Amino acid sequence: MARIRHISGKKRAKERAAVVLAAGLGTRMKSSLPKVLHTINGKPLVRYVVEAVSAVSPQRIVVVVSPATNDGIRKALAGLPVLFSLQKEPKGTGDALKTAARKLRDFDGTVVVVSGDTPLVTGETLETLLALHAKNREQLSMISFVAGGPHSYGRIVRAGSRVAAIVEDKDADAEQKKIDEVNSGIYAIASSLLPLLKEIRRNPVKGEYYLTDLAGIAVKKGYTVGAHSLGNERELTGINTPEELYRAGHYLRERVLSQLLEQGVSFVDRASVYIHPSVTVGPGTLIYPNVHLEGATSVGSGCIICPNTRIVDSTIGNAVTVKDSTVIESSVVHDSAAVGPFAHLRPGSVIGASAKIGNFVEVKKSVIGEGTKASHLSYLGDAEIGKDVNIGAGAITCNYDGTRKHKTTIEDGVFIGSDTQLVAPVTVGKGAYVGAGSTITKDVPPLALALSRAPQKQLENWALRKQQDRKRATARKPMKKGG
Questions:
Q1: Tally of CB atoms within 10 A around 265
Q2: Degrees (nearest 5) of the Cα angle 370, 362, 274?
Q3: How much helix, strand and coil, in percent to the nearest 5, is found in the chain?
Q4: Per-residue pLDDT tens digits for 118-174
Q5: How far is the CA of 216 from the CAs of 166, 301, 310, in angstroms?
Q6: What is the DSSP letter of 37?
Q7: How far is residue 174 CA from its own chain's centroid?
Q8: Tens digits of per-residue pLDDT, 87-100?
């Protein structure tokens, strides 16, 4: 995200600011959650918008909130350098921008205004609007588009090539309803026009102050107002209903997958793959059906991601194979490693280069060294495991004593036999061997062999005697009376 800096000293006419209108509840969503806090691919709508306006390098970003949305939006935008402006009562978009203008009193430049429910708008589209705004020397510019089918968008009423007014659908007459050019609600406004917000009058029907009325006021005062058809309807329209949220998610998903295809990523069946916009994937990687890549995940080049896999907030190196039905969370997998099938890397795990984590192996907050293999049926928690270690089937690091977690250290070149329990805290020295079926409670010196088995007993002919006992018991059993 662009670094936001506040203006001080001499003002510059070409500065940029951004206002995100996010005070509305969105009752048509039929949810107690404010509209802009609904998510697409795990990210709130308002965060998409703030990231989009950040792409045009504004000197400050003001987010307008209401008492009902304040706490949730502050949490959703945590870590982003934004200012918040509180609209105490729901008096409409004109009042919302007037509220934000208090944070822009010392600002001289262009203000881009975007609704917090338009998560699909891109920084490129906003940059194009700002460029046209400057090129045409307009004081108020907006993005328009041609709406398809029935709609309730505000109509762009023109006088020649210039905008004369914006008329809301509910206020439009029969002729105005025939206009197919409509308002997106995205504006570039010269800061010198902001004082005109006080001239907007309350709409008699809804009792709100419409920001769209600013266009007519500006025209009457001789300012230049323009509308520019940019982007497409899907990108520019707001989210108001669960159906629109669903469609927006699919549109965003397709946009992400198309970009990855252009970058050299291959899909067996893209229709079943879900990848968040924040994810990066290197060229030459093959992704199988029903794969989910989420959050701050990075996948390198030449990887194979097999079916039914979910990777979240993790870094996957180059030439990694993630086999079927594997879950990887907040972990790192280095080059040429293999994970799965049916493996689970829990948060804090680091898998070394060329290491192998196999069937039904769970790793939690552990470092697995280069070339180490844990091929099946093991739990490795709170462990530091060196290079070229062999972890036998059924091995467990017993890291929890009921109160605290403890660390297991296994040094380079160790062989851990099958069905071994390592009771932490414990260290197995370099090159040591641990025999199968052992429970290790003490440190094992380097190059040693550790065994902890009960002596094996063999009772000769035990099975034969067992059979004879059964026969005798059957012979003594009394017969039942009657039929």
A1: 24
A2: 95
A3: 25, 30, 50
A4: 999 999 999 999 999 999 999 999 999 888 777 778 888 998 888 888 888 778 888
A5: 7, 54, 52
A6: G
A7: 45
A8: 999 999 999 999 99
Phi-psi region of 382 (alpha: psi -120 to 50; beta: other; left: phi over 0): left
Q: Do 225 and 175 form a contact (C-beta atoms < 8 A)?
A: no
Q: Is position 376 annotated as part of the catalytic site?
A: yes
Peptide bond into 425 cis (omega under 30): yes
The per-residue pLDDT for range 364-407, each reduced to its tens digit, is: 999 999 999 999 999 999 999 999 999 999 999 999 999 999 99
Nearest alpha-carbon partner for 131 in 68, 56, 193, 81: 56
Point out which residues pair with 140 in neighbouring strands: 189, 225
Q: Are 69 and 22 in contact (CB under 8 A)?
A: yes
Assigned token pair, 424: 């932490």
pLDDT tens profile 328-347: 999 999 999 999 999 999 99
Decide if 252 contacts 271 (C-beta within 8 A): no
Query: How far, in Å, are 23, 49, 483 from residue 320 at the CA level?
Result: 45, 34, 71
Q: What DSSP designation does 90 have?
A: -
The residue type at 263: Q
Predicted TM-score (pTM) above 0.90: no
Distances (CA, A) of 106 to 16, 43, 71, 195: 12, 33, 27, 13
Compute the mean pLDDT over every residue in the chain, rounded to the nearest whole number: 92
Token duo for residue 115: 């609704």
Distances (CA, A) of 7 to 13, 16, 249, 474: 11, 10, 37, 99
From 218, 234, 237, select the one nearest 226 (Cα to Cα).
218
What is the chain's alpha carbon radius of gyration, rounded to the nearest angstrom? 33
Cβ 273 vs Cβ 257: under 8 Å: yes
Structure-token pair, residue 407: 């660390």
Which tokens belong to 229?
A: 């058809």
Burial of 108 (0-12, 13-18, 19+ CB in 10 A): middle
Q: One of 292, 334, 344, 376 is an active-site residue; which one?
A: 376
**b/e code 227-254 from CB counts within 10 Å (16+ = b):** bbebbeeebbbbbbeeeebeebbebbbe
Tell me if the bond preceding 341 is cis, omega within 30° of 0. Answer: yes
SS3 category, 11: coil
Reading the block at residue 118, the tokens are 């338009």
* pLDDT higher than threshold 50 for residue 228: yes
Alpha carbons within 13 angstroms on the beta-carbon side of residue 354 total 6
